[in-house]
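QA checklist item 7 of 12: single-chain prediction sanity check.
[x] sequence parsed
[x] length recorded as 368
[x] structure emitted
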Amino acid sequence: MNRPYNQFRAMLAITRASMTAIFRSPSAVGFSLGFPLVFILVFGFIGNSGTSVDIALKNPKDTSNYVIRALLGSSIVKMKAEKDTATMRVDLEKGRIAAVVSLDSSASAMGFTQYKIKIQSSSASADKYPILKMALAQTIEILEERKIPDQYKMLSVQELPQVQGREYRMIDFILPGMLGFSLLSTAVFGVAFVFFSLRQTLVIKRFFATPINRKNIVFGVALSRVAFQLMTAIVIILAGRFLFNFTLVDGAVTFLNMLALSVIGLIVFMGFGFIISSVSKNESSIPPVANLFTLPQFLLGGTFFSTDAFPKWLQSFCEILPLKQLNDALRNVAFEGATLLDCGKQIGILSIWGVVIYVIAIKVFKWE
């Protein structure tokens, strides 16, 4: 008696075959795993080499003060707009800003107004604080050379008790970005090349001669991509953790949340791969079409550097990019201990992208 055809086993067979093909492709393994690891090693050994510091003003009106204006005029010091004192405290503890600066004034016996600059730093930004002190000393020196106005001659600096927090290292920024880079490149280029090749070599046509359902062909290839990329994600995260002490706030829970976010991002990005494989006329046209989608995200998605340095209008554009949302979610989970529920905004935007992309992919997808 013949047993009924097992669709699930057929799908797993396609998954195994696709996985074997991935590992037999040096370029696929190198681009997905090798390239991100090289970047992690480079930035891990460099450490925190930035020369600029972010501060917050306890009273935003202090920007009208002569000394504060001069300090912010330095190319080293940048001011972050904060909503309230509680937000400043959290950002200070998590190393997002190097210090909170405030300005007090009082009348002196000599008739001058005595100004006192109060600075509260954090142990999370211990490497940035000396840079701020240097910038402040240079600012005062320059002002004195320019004959500082009389009302500012009585000027002093007071250091308030330091806030305890976690140090935000370069690896804590660069590793999630490299993980997002790996997910995006593997999903888009991998899926696009695989399905175009399967059509071109008539492999899909041969699949149609078997009883396997079309959806299981797609699921089989997609499952192999997810499995492979999860392996690379595990290697990337563990390499950062054990080689450079990458921050995983809640240990295994944080690790699993990062893998869950990786799966969400990978599923969304694979939709672009399906579209590109369908609209490309030949194999040589796949890279240019794929780069139209990937390159802007690599540059504007907070992969290699923070988008805070961009103009406001460009930052608004960056916020709608799926890679930017994935990178932000990965960093929030890893360093701040956020849960998947806390990343509702980022996951929501990724989900919207997913719905739109797969609607388009279903419309344009070609089997032959």
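[x] summary fact logged: The radius of gyration is 26 Å.
[ ] second reviewer sign-off
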